[in-house]
Amino acid sequence: MTILADARRVIENGPVCDACLGRCFADRSFGLTNDERGRSLRIAVALADDDPYEDETAECWVCEGESQRFDEWAETVAEALEGWEFDTYQVGTRVPPLVEENEKLLRESADLPEDAGELFKSEFNREVGKRVGQLTGTEVDFERPDVLALLNVDPERADLSAHAVEVQVNSAFVYGRYRKLERDIPQTEWPCRECGGSGKQLAEGGGEEDCEHCGGSGYLYDESVEELTTPPVLDAMDGEEALFHGAGREDVDALMVGTGRPFVIEVKQPRVRSVDIDALEAEINEFADGAVEVTDLAPASHEMVERVKELDASKTYRMDVEFGADVTDEELQAAVGELDGATIEQDTPQRVDHRRASLTRTREAYAVSGELHDPRRGELEVHGEGGLYVKELVSGDEGRTTPSLAGLLGVDAVVTALDVLAVEGEDEEFDDPEYLKEVA
Question: In CATH, what number does 172-200+213-311 get?
Answer without folding.
Answer: 3.30.70.2510
